[in-house]
Amino acid sequence: MRQRSPETWRQIRDSAVGLMAERGFDAVSVDDIVAEAGISRRTYFNYFAGKESVLFDPDPEDPLLWAELIAARPAGEPLWTALHQLIRAYTTAAAERMIRQRLVLRASPELAACSRKVCDRFWDAVRAWASQRNADSTELQLDLLINTAQTVLNTVLPRWDVDTGIAGLHRLIDEGFTLLQSPEWTTS
Amino acid sequence: MRQRSPETWRQIRDSAVGLMAERGFDAVSVDDIVAEAGISRRTYFNYFAGKESVLFDPDPEDPLLWAELIAARPAGEPLWTALHQLIRAYTTAAAERMIRQRLVLRASPELAACSRKVCDRFWDAVRAWASQRNADSTELQLDLLINTAQTVLNTVLPRWDVDTGIAGLHRLIDEGFTLLQSPEWTTS
DNA sequence: GCGCGGCGTGCACTGAGTGCAAGTTAGATG
DNA sequence: CATCTAACTTGCACTCAGTGCACGCCGCGC
User: Fold this and answer.
1) Fewer C-beta within 10 Å: chain A N or C terminus?
2) Euclidean distance between CA atoms A116 and B116, whole angstroms
3) Chain A: nearest CA to B144, how far in angstroms?
4) Average pLDDT value for residue range B93-111
5) Chain B residues lying within 8 Å of A147, measured CB to CB
6) CA dihedral B113, B119, B125, B130 (to 10 degrees)
7) What is the dihedral of CA A99, A104, A106, A110, to 10 degrees?
8) B140 and A175: CB-CB below 8 Å?
9) What is the pLDDT of residues B39-82, one digit of tens each?
10) CA A78 to mean position of chain CA atoms
11) In this structure, is the CB of residue B38 within 7 Å of any atom belonging to strand D?
């Protein structure tokens, strides 16, 4: 997986997403993608490990963005609140990306299962940060909290009407977080 | 996908799981499986949609088991408690299966991502039941609660040392559920 | 004996993914 | 200017997953 050129990377991904949003995931072969992108089949696999990777791999510069978002969290903030705000910030920053992905997923519902791992790399970064920050908590506690936050996002995403924009998504996210932190959520 | 014979089904699955626990998922081809099971390649795909299906598809009689477990829940029980008890009952009933799956996942860590969908069909059944039972709640509320319960299980499973048996798994499950329903869980 | 339907199988084909070796280009060095 | 090298790209050949189709076998009712 030796790639140096972010332009080629974008070129491939944009071609792929374009075709897939139009025809659906299954109806687009890797050959279609490389023809559209003007590269060879072999080069595709030098950039992406598989066919889904072109949808779910993070942008090359994403890790830096994540680091900024994470660094922006104030020190004393409760972890749950920090996760809530991180998701808001993340979805704001990655707005066009999320919208593009939704379009593809709308055209290819069979990918719904894979869609959970959309932001897995992001969550890994969050996990690393949290375990340093809250060194007093157990790994299990932190993982539970983070996975639950991730679940809120994943639960809410399929209900998101792309036409309502990021504001609409934020309303859903807030609703999810609020529901889970209301005192009586376990007694319904 | 026309299959009538549960014996053949078990035969294929047992052959596959045996080989995979031994060599790892990637090192076992479908041809290996069908050779071991004594059937043709084409028949394999009449029973299972893909290579992973042989690991993650439910047993033919599982839906009946799930229905029993679900029917056993008392009427007034809070949904969160019901989900907790359902998971305990499910893992008890599917003990050997879960242990087998852990063995394969131990041999093939690359499947960790897929392992989340281990019991997806079970959760679908739970979802259907809950939306009838708690018709007053919104779909979003129910999905959040159920997905969170599912997350507890998925968070806890990788930490389970198979040698501690189902009792050890239940300790982890209880710990997860208790953590999330403790009043101060959002303020760490 | 005859049709019929369910199931298993062989065959041929598409498409994903990989290892290897050769080609290309750009920059560093003499 | 010649050339060496390292990074990147490419073509080729191969394995394996997955599918459509048609045929064969067997048990069943008539």
Assistant:
1) N
2) 10
3) 6
4) 87
5) 151, 154-155
6) -70
7) -140
8) yes
9) 999 999 999 999 999 998 998 888 999 999 999 999 999 999 99
10) 23
11) no
